[in-house]
Amino acid sequence: MRAVASPATGDAGFAVPAARGTWRPWLLVAPLLAFLAAFFLVPLGQVLVMSVTDPEPGFGHFVAIATDGFFLRVLAQTFATALLVAVLTLLLGFPLAYAMAEAGPRMAALMMVLVTMSFWTSFLVRTYAWMVILGKSGPIAWLSATLLGGAPPELLFTRFSSTLAMVHILIPYMVLSLYAALRRIEPAVLRSAASLGAPPVSVFRHVILPLAAPGVVNGLTLVFVLCLGFYVTPVLIGSPREQMIAGVIGHQVEEFLAFGEASALSVVLLASTMIVLGVYHRRFGLDRLWG
Amino acid sequence: MDGAYLEIRDLVKSYDGKTRALDRVSLSARRGEFVTFLGPSGSGKTTTLMVIAGFEAPDAGLVRVAGQSMAGVPPHKRGIGVVFQNYALFPHRTALQNVMFPLLMRKVPRAQAARKAAEMLDLVGLADFGNRHPRQLSGGQQQRVALARALVFDPTLLLLDEPLGALDKNLREQMQLEIKRIQRALHVTTVFVTHDQSEAMALSDRIVVFEGGRIQQDATPLEIYNRPRTEFVARFVGDSNLLRARITDPGAGIAEVEGLGPSRVLPQQAQVLPNGQGTLLLRPEALAPAEADAPNRLVLAVEEVVHFGDSALLIGRAGGVTLRARIGGRAAQGIGAGAQVPLGWRPDAAHLIGA
């Protein structure tokens, strides 16, 4: 809500207090703020502190991350995977979102239910589902053995399987972002483009694509940021040799009890996410990210 | 039909297979003519426009433009300029780029397209606004850009779908004159869709009145106003008093009119009325303060007076029917509710509609 700058004076001479409600809204969000402070800000602060104090004070962990080939490789791997997943969701999601925007109300509602149903199903369940589908006794292995014979291809625990599962899990974000943008395009604008001499391909290129661009940027940003911190899926079905940063953080804590190192990696991950969102915010405004 | 530039014959269109959105619609327009489709919403006027533009396919019937059948021709190959109700400008392009679009689609070199688009923006009075985006323009300005964009490629036809509906009254009147001026200057055959009868009267060479998917009347604005063919047209265009009438003496032109008793009407109209029954249309301005020679007279018991300054509307009762009379503003001074005002009307100021 935007505040009215000047204190308006009504006909009867009532002055609307300029400072109206400066503290009252805070009262409304106080419970939420208290909750966030206790269970989010404090632990986050602890992580920040730990990253420079555990086991001894100093920026040793950050220096290690910046110089150690392993960590740099993990970071690069994480960014590359997030980018790949974001682009793949865009390529796969656009035709679906476009079909939804073009469909009649009943069909669009049905497609929306299908998209959101997958959205509501726990990603853990969906990850296990991929383990079954891609596993050694799964349908794909069986099909390949019956049709081609010989040993089935290694699908599970590869970069392919984790990327595939993450694309599947994150694609609803992309579809909903694109759908929101496509739905905002006035049908009359498309009709006018046609009446002005644009064949369907040109209407798509010169009108639909540019007008869908905000949805494309939103979807890419959302999927990229969510993918950066993905933990369960790459750990469960990804390649052990090509880990993503969240998996490495978990590994550090669980296997080595290296809380300081894990904290420092977390700070790097958090900072990366903030940078991406910061760039988005400067360019488009963060309040538009969720459509 | 000779000389018909736009020809529409027996268009039938149904969306649900039961009710007909268009029921054998036939009409034609000469080159350079300004034709208005007038009717309430759901009357078929916009559907007919969309069939002409190629956005709707008719179930039956044909559309010919300049002698060419439009059957199976997609919208982008028709070369028809359309201005939509909410302008439908491309929000991501400037005014100039919007106007250039149809030229670029026709493979006109960019520099030439820019020159021609700028000329067209100049014609609609927006020479200095080429670099603005639609959101930086007022409603009226967006309307002009839409008009320029629909005209820049020398369309065979210009179709306007309620283009002034979103504008306020003053701007609407200004844009009416503007559209008329540009249409005359370019001599482009134009079909204008509106539900606003005064807009139709002000702009058109010819008005086609639609109702229930059918054409009720197709005539000049004055013909429509003075000699409506049906009660619907009489009611829809202008203010009206409609009274049941029965011809008692066709030769002398005497009719028994509801509430007014025996009245003089035009014999040539009385004689063609089927079974001597019909409806008498008295426009409010046909009822004038009675003079000695007025052949039909009545006394109006005034119940309400609405002053417009230049004229006033008297609403009252005479002979058990409610009548509306429009008289000069000066003559109305001093008349209030409860006044008994003598009024008269001439046979040639009335019109008989067949029942």
Rg result of chain B: 24 Å
- β-strand percent of chain A reads under 5%
Low-confidence stretches of chain B: none
Q: What structural class do the secondary elements of chain B suggest?
A: alpha+beta
Number of helices of chain A: 12
Question: How much helicity do the residues of chain A have?
Answer: over 70%
Largest sheet features of chain A: none
Strand order of the largest sheet of chain B: 6-7-8-3-9-10
CATH class of the domain at 66-187 and 217-288 in chain A: Mainly Alpha
| CATH superfamily heading of the largest domain in chain B | P-loop containing nucleotide triphosphate hydrolases
What is the H-and-E element order of chain A? HHHHHHHHHHHH
CATH class of the largest domain in chain B, named: Alpha Beta
Task: Summarize the biggest pleated sheet of chain B.
Answer: 6 strands, mixed
- Structural category of chain A: mainly alpha
What is the radius of gyration of chain A computed over CA atoms, rounded to a whole number of angstroms?
Answer: 25 Å
Q: What is the chains' assembly state? A: heterodimer
What's the architecture of the domain at 66-187 and 217-288 in chain A in CATH terms? Orthogonal Bundle
Tell me the distance between the termini of chain B: 30 Å
Please give the most extensive interface between any two protein chains, plus how many residues each contributes: A-B, 18 and 28 residues
Strand content of chain B: 25-35%
Write the layout of secondary structure elements.
The complex is a heterodimer of chains A (291) and B (355).
Chain A (H helix, E strand, L loop, with lengths): L23 H30 L6 H8 L1 H34 L2 H16 L2 H12 L4 H10 L10 H25 L3 H9 L4 H29 L3 H6 L7 H12 L2 H26 L7
Helix pairs in contact in A: 1-12, 2-3, 3-4, 3-7, 3-9, 4-7, 5-7, 7-9, 8-9, 11-12
Chain B lengths: L3 E10 L8 E9 L3 E5 L6 H9 L6 E6 L2 E2 L10 E4 L11 H11 L4 H14 L15 H13 L5 E5 L7 H18 L3 E5 L2 H7 L2 E6 L2 E6 L1 H6 L4 H6 L4 E9 L4 E4 L3 E4 L2 H6 L4 E6 L5 E2 L6 E12 L3 E8 L2 E8 L11 E6 L4 E5 L1
